[in-house]
Amino acid sequence: MRLILFFDLPVVSDRDKRAYTHFLKALKRQGFYMLQYSVYIKLNMDQRAAESSVKQVKEILPKDGYIAVLMVTEKQFASIQYLLGEPDSDVIADDERLVII
Description:
By secondary structure, the protein is an alpha+beta fold.
C-alpha cells in the first residue's frame, strides 16, 4: 500500500513557517518521501500499516491548513503516468516489495 499525502499549509507568519517546518521534518522521520512539492508518499506493507501511518500523521497535524491522504495499492501506484518531466529516481514506482537503500 502507498499513502499519498497532499497538503497546503500557510506560511505567512513566523508561527506558520515554524509549524510548516515541524510538520515536514516529522513526515520525513515517519518515512515519507517527497513526490513533488506538497505531495509526499510512504510505502506500507499492508492496509493495517497504512492506517497506522495515517494515525501517526494525525498526531502531528498543524493548527491550520489543508491536509488529505489517499491510500492506493502498489499496482495502482505503479500505473502513474508522468506527462511532463522525469520521475524522481528516489521514488520506487513499481510493485516490488523489497526496498534496499
